[in-house]
Amino acid sequence: MKQNKCTTTMPLDKTRIWIDFNELCALAKADEAPIYLFSQTDITNDSDGNDITIYDGMEVSVFDDDYDACDLPDALLADGIIVRNFLDQYPNVKWLIRLVKHKKNYKSGDEYVYWMSDL
Predict the structure, then answer these.
(1) Which one of 26, 61, 78, 119 is CB 3.0 to 4.6 Å from 16, fit for a cystine?
(2) Is the pLDDT assigned to residue 105 strictly greater than 70?
(3) pLDDT tens digits, 50-102
(4) Smallest Cα–Cα separation from 72: which of 115, 16, 18, 22?
(5) What is the pLDDT of residues 1-31, one digit of tens each?
(6) Contact status, residue 65 vs residue 75, Cβ threshold 8 Å
(7) How far apart, in Å, are the Cα atoms of 80 and each of 17, 44, 63, 69, 98?
(8) 3-class DSSP state for residue 44?
(9) Could you give the C-alpha distances from 41 to 6, 10, 44, 57, 91, in angstroms and in order?
(10) CA–CA separation, 109 vs 105, rounded Å?
(11) pLDDT of residue 18
């Protein structure tokens, strides 16, 4: 079974998988890293439309469509690790994503999420 995710016409720095940054569902106990709902199935598609098989521990780059103050496209970006859903309140979700901190200090000031224009 496959979950079709969003492709985009927004410019991206590389191929990424879409997530809804409104679906924050938990914070990691160890370091309070944000955890988001990711997928209901083992196969999803990336921003170029390619099928991607998801597995525990997989490193992924993600995006969500967003716009800047001038209403111009400016995708939200993040990187993370796929983890099997451990949250009882979301029984229909198979996979979560635990975001990792940036390797660079982006101007957005957020440790986990940044914008395409930050690059």
Answers:
(1) 61
(2) no
(3) 999 999 999 999 999 888 788 888 889 999 999 999 999 999 999 999 999 98
(4) 115
(5) 666 676 677 789 999 999 999 999 999 999 9
(6) yes
(7) 11, 16, 11, 27, 5
(8) strand
(9) 15, 25, 7, 15, 12
(10) 7
(11) 94
Task: Please enumerate in sequence order all residues whose Cβ is within 8 A of that of 94, keeping only pairs 6 or more positions apart, or say none.
Answer: 39, 40, 41, 42, 84, 85
Domain residue limits, the chain: 2-102
Residue 30 structure tokens: 């160890």
For residue 83, what is the enclosing H or E element?
strand 76-84
Question: How many C-alpha atoms does 7 have within 13 Å on its Cβ side?
Answer: 6
Q: What is the pTM of this model?
A: 0.89
**Token representation of residue 20:** 């809804």
- d(CA 70, CA 7) in angstroms, rounded, equals 23
Question: CA-to-CA distance for 62 and 76, rounded, in angstroms?
Answer: 8
